[in-house]
Write a structure and sequence with these properties.
The protein is an alpha+beta fold and about 100 residues long. It has five helices and four strands, in the order H-H-E-E-H-E-E-H-H.
Length: about 100
């Protein structure tokens, strides 16, 4: 399981446009990440199930912040993944999503 060559090509084409760099500049200030959505996620989790998928090798987000989320939020840690666990551990992420969808049905 992984991304097709066509999908990877599209990702690189999008990266070349610089949109992600602009987004990163907006979200990250001089002292680090400028956006904290934990309170927003807590409010959402009071209404619907919320899960966070995080790679423990993420060099962009601090995984320790996931220890400070509402207990109503399920946190899935991927020890061998970085910032994109949905790419790096596609099969496992798909399994989590399938289970969530089945539980909601």
């Amino acid at each position: 399981n992984g991304l097709s060559g066509q999908a990877v090509k599209k990702i690189y084409e999008d990266l070349a446009k610089g949109r992600l760099s602009k987004l990163a500049d907006t979200l990250v200030g001089a002292s680090g990440q400028a956006v904290d959505i934990r309170d927003d996620l807590k409010r959402v989790a009071e209404e619907i199930p919320v899960s966070i998928i995080i790679g423990d090798r993420d060099e962009i987000l601090d995984g320790s912040e996931m220890l400070d989320v509402s207990p109503m939020i399920a946190v899935h840690h991927f020890s061998k993944a970085g910032h994109m666990p949905h790419w790096e551990a596609l099969g496992e992420v798909q399994m989590i999503l399938k289970r969530k969808i089945k539980a909601w049905a």
